[in-house]
Amino acid sequence: MDLRMIDAGGIRLACRVSGDPGGPPVVLLHALGEDGSDWAVVAEELGRRHRVFVPDLRGHGRSDRPGQYAFELMRDDLGALLDALRVERPTLVGHSMGGVVAYLYAAKHPDRVERLVLEDTPPPFPRDTATPQHPDGEPDFDWDAVTATHAQLARPPADWPAALEAITAPTLFVAGGSRSHVPQDRIAEMARRVADSRLVTIPCGHRVHACRPEDFTATLNGFLPDGTRHPHR
Fold it and tell me: Which PANTHER family did the record assign (predicted)?
C-alpha cells in the first residue's frame, strides 16, 4: 500500500493506492467519522484484480481540515483527486457519507464513472434525526464535518433527488436491512430513481463491509469490471 498526499484543488488529501497497477480502477469512499483504513479488508481483496484508491475525505484521517464542509465540496475534492492521479473512469464505492459524495459526483460527471456502488447510503429526502452530540475528548476527525453534513442530510438540497435520475452508470445499492438506522424503504426509492440499478440487502446493519466483508466483496466482485487490464495510469 502506497500512501500519497495529493494536492486536490487547494486541499491536501491522503490517498492509499494498492492493488494491480493494470487493473480497472476502484475508488473506496469512507463514512463520516472514519478514514480510508476502514476499507482495509475490502481493499486487499479487490486489489487482487483492481487498482484500488482509498482517500481520506476532507476533515478526516490524514487529510486537511479546512473548516469548511459540504457534500458538494467533497464531490469536487474527489474530482480534483481523480484528475491529479490521472484516474479517468473508475468504479466508485461509497459507504454512508461516502455514498452521497459518490452519487453526487456520478450525477455531475456521468462520463467519468464506470460503475457505482452505494452501501447503506442516506437517501436525499428530509427526515428528522437527533443532533449528534460532541463526544468527550477530541475525535480523530473534524467535528465541524459532522454538524455540516448532518444538517445537509436532515434537509437535503432540492436538487439531490434529481441527481439520482441523472446517473447513467450501472449502480449497485447494498442495503443493511432492518438493523440499519438508514430507512430501507428510502434506499429502495433511491434505487428506483436510477435508470440502471439493482438492490441487494445483506442484513447486518449499517456497516455491511465491516460486519460481512466476505459477502460484501463477493457481491462487489460479481458487479465490478472483470479485471481486464486497463491503461488508466
Answer: HYDROLASE, PUTATIVE (AFU_ORTHOLOGUE AFUA_2G14860)-RELATED, MONOACYLGLYCEROL LIPASE
88 in helix, strand or coil? coil
Query: What CATH number does domain 2-131+142-211 carry, 1.10.287.110, 1.10.760.10, 3.40.50.1820, 1.20.1250.20?
Result: 3.40.50.1820
Domain ranges of the chain: 2-131+142-211
Q: What does the alpha-carbon distance between residue 119 and residue 207 come to, in Å, rounded to a whole number?
A: 8
Task: Give how far Cα 112 sits from Cα of 31, 88, 185, Å.
Answer: 22, 6, 29
Q: What pLDDT shows up at residue 65?
A: 96
CA distance 2 to 19: 10
Residue-level pLDDT at 129: 73
